[in-house]
Amino acid sequence: MQLNFFLCAAIAAIIPLLVGFIWYNPNVFGNAWMNSIGMDEAKMKEKFNPILVFGLCYVFAFLISFPLSGIVIHQMGFFSMLQNHFTEPATLKLFSETMDLYGNDFRTFKHGALHGGITAIGFALPIVATSALFERRGLKYIAIVAGYWVVCLILMGGFLCQFVDLKSFG
User: Could you report the per-residue pLDDT of 85-128, keeping only the tens digit for each?
Assistant: First the structure.
């Protein structure tokens, strides 16, 4: 079953919230993460606006879905090559024929998860680690936060690759 891209992006954006509820639970990595940033439960609750925080986290995760789909779905590269010519009948025919032949190649959760993991290690880990170095955070902090993003991007990549309907772009 394949779904409209925007619906898939909206669903995929829930993944970091769900993973975060588990990952940052005090019984998992929550206490270690708070210790690594010098926080405790009382400090965490000060000036905390859950609607703002979780709402923005959802919006940011939704934004992550756009470039991530282009990375985990190989057919997106073909689509992007043709996007300036999509009103031409020959382009529409070429796109349709190509998608009929190759549209389902490498369109599995496993393949998307692989590319999501590669993306996490190639982008998220260096970004988290660079910020952490300037913030004077330790290796424990880097491992917890980067590990969270590795899991999120693996799951998001797998979901997007498996369920995005490329015809929802045309």
Answer: 878 898 888 888 888 888 888 899 999 999 999 999 999 999 99
For the whole model, what pTM was predicted? 0.90
Residues 6+ apart with CB under 8 A from 110: 158
Determine contact, residues 7/1, Cβ cutoff 8 Å: no
Q: Which residue has the tokens 């025919």?
A: 93
Helix (H, G, I), strand (E, B) or coil at 164: strand
Q: Which structure tokens are listed for 29? A: 């990595």
Condensed to tens digits (0 to 9), the pLDDT of residues 1-43 reads 778 899 999 999 999 999 999 999 999 999 999 999 999 888 8
| Residue 21: Cβ within 10 Å count | 12
- Please answer whether residues 145 and 132 qualify as being in contact, where contact means their C-beta atoms are separated by less than 8 angstroms: yes
